[in-house]
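task queued by scheduler; priority normal; single chain, no ligands, no partner chains; default sampling; output format set to structure tokens
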Amino acid sequence: MGNQQEALDGLFQMRQHPDREGLYHELHARPFPVVAKPFRISHLAFLVTRAERDADFDHLCALCRRYGVNPPQAGENSFNQTLGDFEVRWERHLEFVTYTFMRQGASDVPFSDTALTLLPRDWLSQLSGSLVVALHLELPDDNDHQWKREALAGSFEGHRLISAELMASSATLWSAFRLHGDGFGRILLRIKDLSPNQTGRLVQRVLELETYRLMALLSASQARELAPKLADLDMELSGVITELSEANELKEERHLLRRLTSMAALIERHRAETTNRFAATKAYYQIVLKRLEELDESHDGKNFTLMDFLGRRLTPAVNTCDAMSLRLEDLARRIERAGDLIRTRVDLKLEEQNRSLLASMDRRSHLQLRLQETVEGLSIAAISYYGVSLLNYLFIAVEPVLPWLQAPWATAASVPLVVLSVWLITRRIKRMIIRESNGS
């Protein structure tokens, strides 16, 4: 026993991964509630920014302090606690937070005395974020008169109802999936043969189904607004390609390239605005399908099921978002290809101009070389002339001293020597200059 304890002490002296405890806690972070009918639940979900996430956490802590209970620790993503006559369940997700308020008992009339009525008004009015989901869910006593069509119609303000047999017909769901006069959606659950634990799991799945359904639809309006903009960009791109096939001047092609650059920047802006939203919609839609599967809805082949209802209305919206995302990527690729084509044409024309310019420069260099050779010959002649003139003066001066030296003949004899000497010196200087230029 002592050796085992020593081994354990040595183990925990090792360096621990900073997330080790959180990895164990993750599976238990959002436990299912235990719900025994009759029961009333109010559920809220807020879309929050980074700054609002911190403000929301502080607001939750303020509620806990008001009721004299310990608030959640910093960094926690879920919290549940009993506050007086109700229980609060708080969860923080990547872009939204949810509050679920639960109280025991049933209203005389469904949805007339909800769990939300127990919350302080001033605290509710200061919740952070943008409200997306507001739902009242009740599990009344299993009295047959409450489940008659007339009574249900009154509870849902006369809206057309959707009914679903869940958990192998152990529960029945009734809802209009609409906002009512109080600004909330409403769901009634009739529990027939489920334990409190099973009922809690069912309630959690229904709440998550409604939350993720609405979160998935957030991008539907964004997709509808984006559709005409992409249609305009598509037409403009077709026009640019048509003009490109008719353009001959480099100036025209550069103008088209500038237009394509502006279009590409606009596409990137649309992608930045929608990529995360469309990706979130796809992820939420998968969760909705998973929750529908977990509800284990019974199909009798006659009635309009919950799966049919949500699939008929949610799937087209999600498909529209997927289509807009694909269209954005397609437009981006087409604009990139068109830009590459124009740049290739511009590069070819520039290369052709550069080739003509180099040929012109080559001709000029040949002309300059010939002119230089001509100037070089003239320079040799001029220098030789001055050299011979100087020697002539010298011969004339020494002729009295050396009678045998005749100045005219001596001058004539020095001409080839002077010309050869000047030519050799000029050639040597020229080689030295060429060698230095090549070396540099």
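post-processing summary
- Residues 306-398 form the longest helix (93 residues).
- The chain has three domains: 32-194, 219-356, 370-435.
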